[in-house]
Amino acid sequence: MTILVANLGTSDLAVQLKAPLRSLDAESKQTLNLTEAECNQDYYLPIGFDRQERNTEQSQAKLTDVEKIVWGNRQSLLALSLCAELGVSYDAKYRFSFRELCLKLCQQYQKNPDQWHSRLRPGRIWGVIKTAVEDFQVEQIYIFITNQPKFINGQRNFNYDTDSVHLFRLLRRWVKREFSEPVQFIPVKIPRFLPPVDQDGLLEKYYQFFNACAADQILVSIKGGTPQMQTALRVQALASRIPRQIYLEPQLSIADVLAGKPSACDRTSYWRTQRIQKYQTVQQLLNRWDFEGARVILEQWQTTLDYLHASEIAGVEVSRDTLALAMRALSIAVSYLNFDIDDVRQQSKEGLKLAGLPEVHPFTLVESYHPGLNLYTQCRLFWQLQRIADFLGGMSAFYEEVLHDLIEKLGRLVYFDKNKNPDDWFLRRDAIHGTDLGENFLKIETRINGNVKGWYENGKPRDYKLGGRLSKRNFVKALVVTSHPEKRKFCDQLLSALKSLDYWAEKRNQLIHSAAGISKQRLAVVRETDLEGTDSSKINKTVKSSCPSNQILMQMSEVLKFSLKITGTDANYLDLEGPYYLYSDLANWTIQLLDQDS
């Protein structure tokens, strides 16, 4: 639904004066050199136009000599003609009450609509309403109006005479009669004792309106009202949750006002201001590693730009390529978080196809992707974000992924039936029986499972499942001892670091099954409690060799460092104070890209 939101001010009503120059005295007419025909000309005069706009002088310069006379003497002509006609008093400087004049006009219009309708023109706001109704099919128009007390604490309220309450009633009748389409003219009342110059109070009032507004797109006109009302409307509209906003700005043409024509409206949007706000939000989300939240913000912003482009707002198309690149980079980050490497490869290919890429970009990161490093980095993120349950889950996955990677990198997948059981680790007896590897594994594995000897010697069952991290760890040790004895030192350091994490892996399983919550603070507490002894043999066995909770990440870094030394791979991104692997690259590149756009 699209709505129009506008302020209403004293310049928003023009009234046709019948030959207003005839009300001038003979001396004035002679001084101004007016002819009889010129004195008999009708004009529409705004009853409260007292502001200087940026194009006022240019507009005045385009007037005829007679129009300049009418415009320059509009206050006295209104007093001598319209006020006299309606019985509204005025002072020696031709000043009168705007509120009282609107009330009298409203009363006369209600009595004689046929006589008065053509004489009334909603001045500047008419063009706004006309554009909103005819081009955007707006059916609801919300108008901020003032209706203040005449006296405050016994003192005359000087704002009282400029109130728009009666002007609103008048325009609501006029709009209903003028437009064939159904249009609701809905008042939004400024509280009676809130001065229309109280900026803080007005900001709160406008905030309340937009906070309760259910529209998904709005048209805004800020011309009417006090400068403080204009500021409040603009600020709170931009700060609202409504993504699609177009500002209708009536352009002053004094000749059109005098002729009773609606003002032409420029369609503008503070989309560049909104863009800065969106990009700042994206940066805040990326500082918290919320790649999906940042992507959604940009996706919504792209929808807004499409809407503004379709509404003939110039310049918005320049951000489209930037958004496409940024959203693709963020989508890649989300896929990395989900370990969806197939999607990362596809997204990277599409990113590389986009024109105008800088020399440095994140779409080739997948070429050096390392799953263990990804899991380690995610645990760093979870620790920073206080997501300790996810942290422990990631640590357990990391533990086994390192072992899987070592088995694969050392070329020993041939010992497992991955065709029959692609997701499990069933060790083939016929492949290792009688080999040095088999003998070494039997010796190491017997320490935790006495049944392995019967399997190895008798072959029942044929395959032996490495069902947990300890058996996989033993197999890795047997591999290194047998085939890479020169790396035995690295392997021992790797196993030592892994053993320090055994307790935390067991504790993570216990916490999950008991549905118990966990936090950084509780990690230290539960370890101290378990060191005193528990009913769990697994906990008692592992807790004494465990590292303190604040050293888990350091031990994970050691695990990865020594596993990479065993495979002869460069160990990058392991520094706990350094960049967060590909996530830092993606976040920093996206922020830099958006900074260039803004």
Please state the structural category: alpha/beta
Count the E strands: 13
Q: What form results from the Cα inertia axes?
A: elongated
| Portion of residues within helices | 55-70%
Helices, by number, come to 27
Poorly predicted residue ranges: none
Sketch the major β-sheet: 6 strands, mixed
Strand content: 5-15%
List the strand order in the largest sheet: 8-5-1-9-10-11
Mean pLDDT: 90
The rounded distance between the terminal residues' Cα atoms is 29 Å
Calculate Rg over CA atoms. Answer: 39 Å
Can you describe what's shown?
The chain is α/β, with parallel strands linked by helices. It contains 27 helices and 13 strands. The protein has helices spanning 26-32, 36-39, 56-61, 65-72, 74-86, 98-111, 113-116, 123-136, 165-178, 199-212, 227-239, 254-259, 271-287, 291-310, 320-337, 341-353, 371-384, 388-409, 429-432, 436-445, 452-458, 469-483, 488-514, 520-531, 537-543, 552-567, 581-597; strands spanning 2-7, 14-17, 43-46, 120-121, 140-145, 151-152, 155-156, 184-189, 217-221, 244-250, 265-268, 426-428, 463-465. Strand 6 and strand 7 form a beta hairpin. The mean pLDDT is 90.
